[in-house]
Amino acid sequence: MVAVTTLAMAGPKRAFFDGKGHLNHAVIAGLELTSEQTEKIQVLHEAAKKEIIPVKAQLATKRAEMKLLWTQATLDADKIKTTQKEIQALRTQIRDTQTDMRIAFRNLLTPEQTSKLLASGFGRNGRDKKGRGYNGKGKGGGYGKGNGCGNWNPQCDGCPRNTK
C-alpha cells in the first residue's frame, strides 16, 4: 500500500485516497504504478509529512493564540493583525509543501499514467467538470451535493417551501 497525503490530491468524488491518506487500490491498479514508482511516492509522502506535521502544530498554537486575543475585554489590534499574518504564513508554507509534492508525484508518472490520472478527475480539488464545487450550487440550483432546488425555486414540486 502506498500512503500519500490526502491534502495533496483531489476532492471527495474522486477518492484517490481513503480517509487515512492511503492511495486507493483502484488508483494503483488503474495507473499501473511500478514498484519503483510506488516506493518513490512513499518517500514523497514521508518527506511531506515530516515537513507538514510541525507546521500544523505551530498553526494550531497560533489559532489558539488568535482565539484568546479575540476573547480579551480590550482588543490589541496590532497583535491580532500580526498573529493573523503568522497564521497565513503557516498556511502558505503547508500549501507550498503540498504543491511541491503534487508536482513531484506528477513527474513520477509516464505520459500514459498522467492521461489516465487527469481523465479520472485528479487536480480538480473537489470540483466537477464544469468547475462547480461539490458544496456549491447543485444540479437543481440549490446549495449542497444533492439535487435540491434551493429556497423557493418553482422548478421543484417536492420542496416544502414551494407554494407555487
User: Sheet with the most strands?
Assistant: none
Please provide the count of β strands: 0
Unreliable stretches, pLDDT < 50, 5 or more residues?
1-14
> How many H/I helices?
4
User: What is the typical, i.e. mean, pLDDT?
Assistant: 75
* Structure class: mainly alpha
Helix content: 40-55%
* CATH fold node name of the largest domain: Four Helix Bundle (Hemerythrin (Met), subunit A)
Which percent range describes the beta-strand content? under 5%
CATH architecture group name of the largest domain: Up-down Bundle
How far apart the termini lie comes to 55 Å
Overall body shape: elongated
Q: In words, what does this structure look like?
A:
With 164 residues, the protein is an all-alpha fold. The protein has two domains: 6-119, Four Helix Bundle (Hemerythrin (Met), subunit A) (Up-down Bundle); 137-164, no CATH class. The protein is built from four helices and no strands. The chain has helices spanning 25-31, 35-70, 77-108, 111-119. Mean pLDDT is 75; it is low at 1-14.
Give a short synopsis of this structure.
By secondary structure, this protein is mostly helical. It is 51% helix and 0% strand.
Topology readout:
Layout lengths: L24 H7 L3 H36 L6 H32 L2 H9 L45
Helix pairs in contact: 2-3
Keywords:
164 residues; mainly alpha; Four Helix Bundle (Hemerythrin (Met), subunit A); 2 domains; 51% helix; elongated
